[in-house]
Amino acid sequence: MFKQKKKYSVFVTRAIPEAGLQLLRKHANVRVWNQTSPIPGKELYREAARADGLFTLLTEKIDKKFLRANKHLKIVANYAVGFDNIDVPAATALGIPVTNTPGVLNEAVAEHALTLMCAISRRIVEADRYVRSGKYHSWQSMLFLGADFFGKNLGIVGLGRIGISLARRAAQGLGMKILYTDPRPNREFERHYDAEFVKLPELLRRSDFVSLHVPLLPSTRHLISAKQFAMMKPTAYLINTSRGPVVDEKALVRALKKRLIAGAAIDVFEKEPRLAPGLTKLDNIILTPHIASATVTARDNMSLVAAQSILDVFSGHRPKSLVDPAVWRKFLAARPVS
Ligand code: GLV
Ligand code: GLV
Predict the structure, then answer these.
(1) Which domain holds residue 234?
(2) Who is most buried in 32, 117, 146, 223, counting CB within 10 A?
(3) Tens digit of pLDDT for each residue in 168-184?
(4) Nearest ligand to the C-alpha of residue 140?
């Protein structure tokens, strides 16, 4: 009789693009939490208990307690480049590989940051509301004056793949001067884009636009707070497509109210999806619901990368995007591949 190879089980914590699901279904038994809101903790524990691999969204809190209760998991594949929702050191200690989806969403996120920059500085959302509400009666010489980009300074905080993608567009497309800050200077990048490496306070003092591209770490929590807003130009704009807690949201509301800066456009929130009081009352901010990577192509590719990571682990291959590569030896030692 035909002997079927063991089919592993995957649990997917929310509806995801068909591309990734199809790939998973070819090789594994797949269950999906097919709802628009996050899976309740109890259900997640129940489903994880009978799964070999977990496909998670950034809304799922994969903490030490969860990982200890689910030591049998062969992988947690996060459908995001960020992984602050997962206790990675705890997963490594237990020999559970954690993967993310870098590489396939850089361009989409950089494009969203650029879109936000354009929209806030040229007051697109305000202007649209003005026209819709029937207020447009006559052309005026000083109606909705905005800020321009050409020759202005863009300060990039965190020079990873996304920061570099934004720099390319801003330097080569918009004629902006690039300042950047990062733990290490990148001389090749500087030569290529005529960029300047500076410390954060200098970047804040000199930039006309500040765009955040750091991961959320203990060292980047509230990186931008009251003290930093006070350093910025009153004509400057803040763009955040990284993680909400990188900005002290209450301090942001105060800075915008007092016009310490000209405006902000943010895609992420400190206590997502809750918003700091007063945020939605401000006219100098644009708010989008964590959609920076939300293009059809990026999301398809993210689902494929996460699905492939799961299948790689099931077949004993090291997945490409291990968040902590040190886990792999532990994984193999704990679960010898036959
Ligand atoms: C989205 O925020 C991501 O980390 O991919
Ligand atoms: C504006 O519409 C102009 O023609 O300058």
Answers:
(1) 106-287
(2) 117
(3) 999 999 999 999 999 99
(4) 2
